[in-house]
Backbone:
């Protein structure tokens, strides 16, 4: 047995800490109120949800409908892949300008990072609305929205990956008298490549998820079928769309994970 | 420790004039440091370091951890600026050189680092071709696949010199530590530098591989008549491979003597 008194199991918070906890709790309650949180609606939702499931199942398996939805899903994937690839390619030069200590000065880094922050702050659906206005309805607007969204995502992460890449090879090439651009191309980018691949695959997964809803605003893809299904109370067809989206998104995530492991092993 | 400085201070080697062979000539000085001080913030790493290294000398820079050996090498290469004093390398002051001059100077030097610093995902041959980037900048030297035949030949020759020509296509991250360091040496010598700088080149290798690498490094350096500055914690290596020893301790240059005039026990004094 010790001669020392046991410390209290719980420490009494300081007045400042108490104020912090109370403020946090108030903030959460305020947000729930703003979001229209309602116990009554929570209680009445399960029967309504069950009613929806009852009307949506079985999903529409009419061959003609499935063929139409299938082609829309293919278009969705085309939008996602094309947008993601263009976005990833554009992200590399943008990331070079955003990465500190590589090819551009601190002011350029900061300006480019702020622009990337703005791009990320605007939701992909809002970009789709902008491009629908700019280039008209259809998948091209969706592809542009995905590309811009991917630049915002990959540009930032590629820059961080290059900043965090091992410095030794770059220093050795600098010591040979190589130019900054040569050092970046030969040492920094290869060192960051596993992270680039991983980020690009995440961007592709994100693009596939995004592209499934761009149709809601007329930017192509299967989203329009979902909207029409709900608007016409054709819940079996809407359920077919939801299941199709789920299968494709899960498949892409699995494929992406498998590819990531095959190409870069366990590295991130 | 100060008495070490009195042991046979390194005299500039005397070379016979090519014509006649009897007139002592003043050897070319490749590296000169005069009152060089380096501080990080207010903390001095070393102060008032002065020495002159003649062309063709092999100089071991010794001292305990934290005495600034690697920092001094980086100052010599212009990778970091000295806080005070003047460094002249091949007639150029790195701190005063414009970027293009700095690159031209570095292109005349080679660096071998403790950690090899190869680009892991690229082939051995591409890594060696990168050693030419200072002299031949541009896209064609980003990969051996794009490089001109002359550069590929030079890189292959450098790999032959380090005994790894058969490994040209192998990925750099598939090599053993000793092989990696040999490739790093090939990258350092491919541009036929006038000065080779090696920062603890065998610190990450087992003793046998370290010995092999040091033997190879100095065989190549002496064949080419290159000035070598290397750091090492291995006293036997410093005495075996250095013509001259510079010792850093307590933030000062405490030793500047020929290898023949100091003993291993003298050098151990630097680590006390």
Residues:
């Amino acid at each position: 047995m010790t001669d020392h008194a046991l410390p209290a199991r719980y420490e009494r918070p300081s007045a400042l800490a108490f104020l912090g906890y109370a403020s946090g709790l108030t903030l959460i309650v305020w947000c729930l109120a703003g979001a229209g949180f309602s116990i009554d609606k929570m209680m009445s939702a399960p029967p309504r949800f069950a009613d929806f499931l009852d009307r949506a199942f079985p999903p529409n398996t009419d061959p003609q409908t499935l063929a139409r939805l299938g082609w829309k899903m293919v278009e969705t994937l085309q939008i996602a892949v094309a947008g993601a690839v263009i976005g990833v390619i554009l992200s590399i030069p943008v990331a070079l300008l955003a990465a500190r200590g590589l090819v551009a000065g601190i002011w350029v880094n900061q300006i480019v990072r702020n622009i990337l922050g703005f791009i990320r702050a605007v939701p992909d659906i809002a970009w789709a609305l902008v491009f629908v206005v700019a280039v008209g309805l259809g998948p091209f607007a969706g592809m542009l929205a995905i590309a811009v969204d991917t630049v915002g995502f990959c540009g930032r992460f590629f820059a961080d990956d290059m900043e965090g890449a091992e410095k030794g090879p770059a220093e050795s090439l600098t010591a040979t008298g190589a130019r900054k651009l040569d050092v970046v191309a030969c040492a920094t980018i290869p060192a960051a490549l596993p992270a680039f691949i991983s980020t690009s695959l995440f961007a592709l997964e994100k693009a596939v998820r995004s592209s499934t809803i761009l149709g809601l605003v007329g930017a192509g893809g299967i989203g329009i079928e979902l909207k029409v299904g709900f608007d016409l109370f054709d819940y079996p067809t809407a359920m077919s769309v939801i299941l199709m989206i789920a299968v494709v998104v899960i498949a892409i995530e699995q494929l992406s994970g498998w590819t990531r492991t095959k190409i870069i092993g366990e590295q991130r | 420790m100060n008495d070490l400085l009195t042991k046979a201070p390194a005299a500039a080697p005397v070379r016979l004039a090519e014509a006649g062979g009897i007139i002592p000539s003043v050897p070319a000085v490749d590296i000169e440091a005069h009152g060089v001080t380096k501080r990080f913030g207010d903390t001095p790493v070393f102060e008032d370091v002065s020495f002159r290294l003649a062309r063709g000398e092999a100089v071991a820079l010794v001292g305990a951890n934290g005495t600034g050996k690697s920092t001094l090498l980086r100052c010599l290469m212009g990778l970091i600026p000295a806080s005070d004093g003047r460094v002249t390398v091949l007639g150029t002051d790195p701190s005063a050189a414009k970027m293009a001059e700095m690159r031209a100077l570095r292109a005349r030097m080679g660096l071998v680092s403790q950690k090899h610093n190869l680009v892991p995902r690229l082939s051995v041959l591409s890594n060696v071709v990168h050693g030419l980037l200072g002299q031949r900048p541009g896209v064609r030297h980003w990969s051996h696949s794009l490089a001109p035949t002359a550069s590929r030949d030079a890189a292959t020759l450098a790999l032959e010199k380090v005994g790894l020509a058969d490994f040209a296509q192998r990925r750099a991250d598939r090599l053993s530590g000793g092989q990696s360091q040999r490739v790093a040496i090939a990258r350092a010598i491919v541009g036929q530098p006038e000065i080779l700088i090696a920062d603890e080149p065998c610190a990450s290798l087992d003793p046998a591989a370290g010995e092999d690498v040091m033997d190879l490094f100095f065989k190549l350096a002496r064949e080419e008549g290159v000035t070598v500055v290397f750091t090492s914690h291995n006293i036997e290596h410093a005495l075996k491979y250095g013509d001259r020893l510079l010792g850093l301790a307590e933030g000062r240059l405490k030793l500047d003597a020929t290898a023949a005039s100091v003993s291993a026990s003298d050098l151990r004094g630097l680590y006390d």
Remarks:
- Chain A has one domain: 62-264.
- The domain at 62-264 of chain A is CATH 1.10.3720.10 (MetI-like fold).
- Chain A touches chain B through 20 residues (CB under 8 Å).
